[in-house]
Amino acid sequence: MIIIGGYPVSPSAVDGMGQLTLAQKQIAKKLAASSETFYYASNHQFTFEVVMRTNIVTAAYALKDSGAGFATFRNSRCNPVFWQRTGYGGFLLKRGVSPSAAITDIFFNGRKYGFECTTAIMILFYKAMLETIGSSMFDQLFGGLLLYSTEHDEDLQITAFRTGDPMPGDILYIKNPQHDPNKPQWQGENIVELGNGLYFGHGIGTGSLQEIIGVLNTKRMPGATISAYLTDDIIRPNYRLMSEYTRNPVRRLLATS
Asked: In Å, how far are 14, 17, 23, 199 from 166, measured between CA atoms?
């Protein structure tokens, strides 16, 4: 269910929202039909979430096609023109490089990059944010980027839920409890819900939930009997809060000074 300014919005009412594209309307309808209630103080907050969710899905497909490889932290790689690889396998934005250009490079020169699935999720969030707010505002908000596991700029306002109705753009987690102990990178997989029964996991690609679970089951220890399984975890940014920061980024800068 969607509540905007105290008033419910039905799935059928979404069709009349001319400010949304077809893909955005499809996601808005899923939100409106959900058993979970999504509250918005304004139409701006609602539109921001729908647009960014759509951009997360688009970024997932783009990352799949970018040529970026899967790699452990020990073997991670990045384009040295934009990033400095840290001793622990993260990517630190180089001095004088714009954050927007560095994030964009991952999608255009993906073969120069290799990272694991958690870092991939952070990259997707940044790319979606960039497409949602534009390069000028993105560069103002996200200087000094570090891409490493779940490390992220606080402006992403990432939140975790144990209950909820997964929606396109949400990040879910598949746990593989009997993974091969010699390959800890396969202890689980962060996946993006793409809609229409499809998911994306970096290092695996796109497929149905059962297809991705099937891949993880090939990464188990010999004699394993417990299948990989989808947990109840849902990760999503705090869209409502971010929409207010990005509408007036100076407010965010003043709040942290």
From this structure: 19, 23, 17, 11
